[in-house]
Design goal:
about 550 residues, alpha/beta, 7-stranded mixed sheet
């Protein structure tokens, strides 16, 4: 019943920041998904008889690839597979299942915040036994294997019924279909004061959560409405759809505009939030105030002790390099470590495993903690609700008091999506060529203090990751960062991060783009964005 199928390699299966992401028609090519899954298995050792977790965000082609992965796991010698009912497991929930049941690892099917549908995006990534994304040494091995693979193994059996919880068996391997929500909801209840949040909501505090027709819908329904008592309808767009209802499931101010407008209205709810396609990102909006992901990280870290799961304090804070320095000042005040890593949650894994960091975050709307090894959108929402319940202040008041204490980091990210790849690479190469001559150079009132191509030396395993983003730091604390994203599927995405620190509370009310206007102009002057990409403005501003 186990077949060995002859195949030929594809040359484009290099995992990006978080797995392999391509358009659905690419994955539908003959043996394309099978090649990559077999390359994962061929790059691992010691999994015979072990447990593998499989799940995804419910996007188009999710069920088909789950069936393939289950049959290939059986053929390759895994002893057990845990799969979410309906093929559903949010990315943080998958991490939790891997950790709770001590699985060998997991295959997570998602393209995160990217669109879904027959011609849209799909992705496969491998998570290791700690529940986190595979480190570069593993993804490098997978890519190397994918370039020479000549066969794969698959069990020639009927499909598993993914909609029926319980245990089935194929080729000596046990397949258990599990409730995708139960273990995660139990974990959240152990971390947060649900009684205090229930009391807050019961007192008339209004919450609205937009699941964006993506994977967090069932999780938010169970936790926010059922366990915390929010009125029915508080969780919008809660049904996961293969095409996310035709919308782009990225929780930013462009794709979640309706939520933003709701929260800016005179009769706005008290707290608004959203999550993305696979549930690992978040958008936080208080009545009348959008809280940037960088600020949210800092504010969550400063107040985490108010939640039971973090009452003993934090060991440290970790942030990706492009994330603003707001969390740095919190770490300094708390007297704990601050770790600056490349973009990609996999770089936080060692810090979390060694107990060096407790809370981590990325400016791209990802925050999380040591409870799992992935960023976790709903976790951030629940920690915010816990803080609001204890402090009994509005989100706007908490933000203003935080800025008054720590200063404000004006911060924005400008994304230029689907840029011609050669043009984008040429822009970065030109920036690298300028680095040596930039320090000391003035652009109007801005004078360059330092400029470099960020490299990370992991303090745990001492691995080195180079070429992680061009940093231009100006005197006084302002900076501009340029980086090509690894999460897109078409062309290249150029991300430009602009930041200015403002200690004066009297200047904390300036509109963000206005506060950053001179830095935005200088970024274009130095990089030649308009000239090199042909773009006169960003695709998305957050």
């Amino acid at each position: 019943m186990i077949r060995t199928v002859t195949t030929t390699p594809y040359g484009d299966q290099k995992p990006g920041t978080s797995g392999l992401r391509k358009k659905v028609p690419v994955f539908q090519q003959k043996n394309y998904a099978e090649n990559f899954i077999q390359s994962i298995f061929d790059s691992l050792e010691g999994f015979q008889g072990e447990t593998l977790v499989i799940g995804g965000d419910g996007r188009y082609y999710n069920r088909e690839v789950i069936q393939i992965a289950i049959k290939m796991a059986a053929a390759n010698g895994f002893g057990r597979v845990l799969v979410g009912r309906g093929g559903i497991l949010s990315t943080p929930a998958a991490s939790n299942v891997i950790r709770k049941y001590k699985a060998f690892g997991g295959i997570v099917l998602s393209a995160s915040h990217n669109p879904g549908g027959p011609t849209e995006d799909f992705g496969i990534k491998y998570n290791i036994g700690n529940g986190g994304p595979a480190p570069e040494k593993v993804t490098d091995a997978i890519f190397a294997r994918s370039k020479v693979i000549d066969s794969y193994k698959i069990a020639d059996v009927r499909d598993i019924n993914l909609d029926l919880e319980g245990t089935q068996e194929i080729e000596g391997m046990t397949v258990t279909v599990i409730d995708p929500v139960a273990d995660y909801a139990e974990l959240m209840e152990s971390l947060f004061d649900f009684a205090a949040i229930r009391k807050l909501i019961g007192g008339g505090f209004r919450v609205v959560f937009d699941a964006m027709s993506a994977v967090t819908g069932p999780y938010a329904k169970e936790i926010i409405e059922k366990r915390l008592g929010a009125p029915k309808g508080s969780v919008m767009n809660f049904m996961p759809l293969p095409d996310f209802g035709g919308h782009h499931p990225d929780p930013n101010l462009v794709h979640a505009r309706a939520l933003y407008e709701t929260m800016m209205a005179p009769d706005a709810p008290d707290f608004g939030a959203a999550s993305d396609g696979d549930g690992d990102r978040n958008l936080i909006i208080g009545r009348g105030i959008f809280i940037t992901p960088s600020d949210s990280l800092a504010m969550l870290a400063a107040n985490a002790h108010l939640a039971p799961g973090y009452a003993k304090g934090l060991a440290g804070i970790a942030r990706s390099m492009p994330t603003s320095g707001a969390a740095d000042r919190v770490a300094e005040k708390l007297g704990i470590g601050l770790y600056e890593t490349p973009t990609g949650w996999k770089f936080f894994g060692n810090l979390l495993d060694e107990g060096m960091a407790t809370i981590c975050g990325e400016e791209s709307a990802g925050t999380g903690s040591n409870h799992v090894r992935e960023k976790d959108g709903l976790w951030a929402v629940l920690l915010w609700l816990n803080i609001l319940a204890v402090r009994k202040e509005s989100a706007l008041d908490i933000v203003k008091k935080h800025w008054a204490t720590y200063g404000r980091n004006y911060y924005s990210r400008h994304d230029y999506e689907e840029v011609d790849t050669d043009a984008a690479n040429g822009l970065i190469a030109n920036l690298r060529d300028q680095l040596a001559g930039l320090p000391g150079k003035s652009f109007g009132a801005l004078k360059v203090a330092t400029a470099d191509d960020f490299a990370y030396n992991d303090p745990v395993d001492h691995s080195v990751s180079k070429n992680q983003g061009i940093r231009i730091l100006f005197e006084g604390g302002s900076r501009v960062v340029f980086r090509l994203s690894g999460t897109g599927t078409s062309g290249a995405t150029l991300r430009v991060y602009i930041e200015r620190f403002e200690p004066d509370p009297a200047r904390h009310g300036i509109e963000t783009q206005e506060a950053l206007s001179d830095l935005i102009a200088v970024a274009d002057e130095i990089a030649g964005i308009k000239t090199r990409t042909g773009r006169t403005e960003p695709s998305v501003i957050t």
